[in-house]
Design a protein that fits this description.
about 290 residues, mainly alpha, 3 domains
């Protein structure tokens, strides 16, 4: 896949397959939950929203596996009750939600969407299914132009805004985050355009996913604090941590494998206080 094909693609299955194995389960589940949230008006049970909340919390590391399983079973029972020769839009929405709530089958979510998007559905379901490919670009970013987050941009204002956007699902505030990043010295045109672009209006439709700009701002701040905590430990433990964990002082740059249309990879070189002269090459994930 070339960059032009990535930007113009309308098949979420092939786009996510292109990112594998670097695509993270966390972001893939959040992508699935975000798409399902837009289908909430089609489903007449509060179990649907509670199940998606449990799945999002599980993706974030919370111990919600059993709760997620209970909600999935309840939604499966409702879907079975709606079974018929001509599945309704509610049946399809419930099917997609049970996939998103599955402990392992959620990885097949892009395939399910791709198989359904060309079928005949109601207006809302058709619109949501056809928006899946733009959503993949929104959630995972452009793998051919990976964004580099400069630690100097992560002021207290930027981090607070990013965390608030995620917690409140208030993606209409993304242009404000862009202004704060620019005030902090950010001159990355892709990041600023992403935050200010017209796709920010998708927040009004109920997107729950953390778009890559606000996600990276929060995650890098968390990693920064974690690594400084480790550097206060013994030199031996700090050295082990640096070998096994991503460092906020890493600098990711785009590299290309040999051959046209090959998948970009991320190369990171460790550095920072106490890192010595050693370097570590790591592969980033989307």
């Amino acid at each position: 896949m070339t960059e032009a094909e990535w930007l113009a693609g309308d098949d979420p299955k092939s786009m996510v397959e292109f990112l594998r194995p670097a695509v993270s389960d966390r972001k893939l589940r959040l992508f699935a939950c975000g798409l399902c949230r837009r289908l909430k008006p089609l489903v007449g049970t509060s179990e649907y929203a509670r199940g998606l909340e449990a799945a999002e919390a599980y993706a974030g590391g919370a111990k919600m596996k059993s709760a997620m399983g209970r909600h999935r079973q309840a939604l499966t029972n409702r879907r079975i009750a709606l079974s018929g020769p001509d599945p309704s839009d509610e049946y399809t929405a419930l099917f997609l939600c049970t996939v998103a709530l599955s402990e392992k089958d959620f990885r097949a979510f892009p395939t399910c969407v791709a198989d359904l998007k060309d079928n005949e559905h109601g207006e809302l379901l058709t619109s949501v299914l056809r928006s899946a490919a733009p959503a993949v670009r929104d959630v995972f970013g452009n793998p051919f132009r990976p964004a580099t987050i400069d630690l100097s941009w992560l002021t207290s204002t930027v981090v607070a805004l990013a965390k608030g956007i995620y917690a409140d699902r208030a993606f209409d505030r993304m242009p404000i985050l862009a202004d704060a990043l620019q005030d902090a010295g950010c001159d990355n045109a892709d990041i600023l355009a992403h935050c200010r672009g017209p796709d920010r209006t998708s927040a009004a439709a109920g997107w729950s996913t953390w778009c890559w700009a606000s996600r990276d701002a929060c995650c890098v701040d968390h990693a920064f604090r974690s690594v400084w905590t480790v550097w206060r430990l013994t030199p031996t433990r700090a050295a082990i941590f640096r070998r096994l964990s991503p460092s906020p002082f890493n600098r990711f740059t785009s590299t290309r494998r040999a051959g046209a249309g090959s998948r970009p990879t991320c190369r990171a070189t460790s550095g920072g206080p106490g890192s010595g002269t050693g370097t570590t090459t790591r592969t980033g994930s989307y």
